[in-house]
Amino acid sequence: MSIKILISPSRYVQGPGAIHSLGEQVKTFGQKAFITGGKTALKETRGDIEKSLKEHNVDSVFEVFRGECCDSEIERLKAAATAAGADFIVAVGGGKVIDAGKAVACLMNKPVVIVPTIAATDAPCSALAVIYTEEGVFDRYFILPQNPNLLVVDTAIIAKAPVRFLVSGMGDALATWFEADSCAKSAAKNIPGGYTTVTALNLARLCYDILLEYGEAAKLAVERGVATPAVEKIIEANTLLSGIGFESSGLAAAHAIHDGLTVLEETHHSYHGEKVAFGTLAHLVLEDRPWAEINEVLDFCTRVGLPVTLAQIGVTDPTPEKIMRVAEKVCEPGMMVHNMPFPVTPQMVYNAIYGADAIGKAYLAKR
Ligand SMILES: [Zn+2]
């Protein structure tokens, strides 16, 4: 049976100053909010969150997130939220705290509200948490029974964050269309275990088109700390379009190569979306996509400042032993690379990684 499934968050609220409507948006979830976020994110937002919740008679309990979305941190937050008698969870910040918040809410069977302060990944919309080890190595995907109940995306806050986050989000969003297209070709199942819909496939394509059209303008605006209409579109593409696109169309080689690269310690300083951008280039090489398309991606990446070589993601000494270690991780059973429209072996991934690095280097040398 070819059953199609599309999943998405229940409510998506975006705009400058959106955080001031948080209380209004959450008032049906209960009277006590357990709010977790990184130190910086909470410092910037705590006052506004508390004020908005108070206006709607919701109490706030804050707990600083310790930085890694790993089992021990999820357990610690769950214990704190339970002790506080939380009616719902609010996760404020970037990908890791968002994933941790979703996991905690799922384990407690409570609603979860996401307040992204950066648009660096497509984590906010999904019913998926990426669990790492305490050392930051990819461990597993935790599939949640439902998507976040609410997203409140304040574009004025996101526009003031360092531009590298927005650019990294574009790297994550760049993979969405190519992975969706590969999954559609192979009739691979999407994250909720169904086949893709024309809706999700076209949202993935729209995500790519918006990146090409508005990516550079958005990057330039955020360098000045302002949210122009181009920034609004890119935040929506990075967060909503990429989120629905990847989740309801499926992941493939680009993310599997990202996950494989995390076995190399030297890649830990580059962001998720930066590694995904290089993974996308390797995906295109692996799938033998047209040269014009590869050049379009290279041009986009270099215009917005995304990496196209191994050195740019920290692998300055890519020995055959290291790259084979990555390739073997990429091809482990259950990895998303097996959603490609053909069988993939470690040797093929090894070749694609070196092939992408060579193309990226040659492109940079020509500029
Ligand atoms: Zn991603």
UniProtKB/TrEMBL annotation:
GO terms for molecular function: glycerol dehydrogenase (NAD+) activity; metal ion binding. Residues 9-155 form the Alcohol dehydrogenase iron-type/glycerol dehydrogenase GldA domain. Pfam families: Fe-ADH (PF00465). This is Glycerol dehydrogenase. Keywords: Metal-binding, NAD, Oxidoreductase, Zinc. NAD(+) binds at G95, K96, V97, I98, D99, S126, L128, Y132. NCBIfam families: PRK09423.1. Belongs to the iron-containing alcohol dehydrogenase family. The lineage of its organism: Bacteria, Bacillati, Bacillota, Clostridia, Eubacteriales. It comes from Desulfofundulus thermosubterraneus DSM 16057. Glycerol binds at D122, D172, H255, H272. It is an enzyme of class 1 (oxidoreductase). Binds 1 zinc ion per subunit. Its EC number is 1.1.1.6. Pathway: Polyol metabolism; glycerol fermentation; glycerone phosphate from glycerol (oxidative route): step 1/2. InterPro entries: ADH_Fe/GldA, ADH_Fe_CS, Glycerol_DH. It catalyses: glycerol + NAD(+) = dihydroxyacetone + NADH + H(+). One of its GO terms (cellular component) is cytosol.
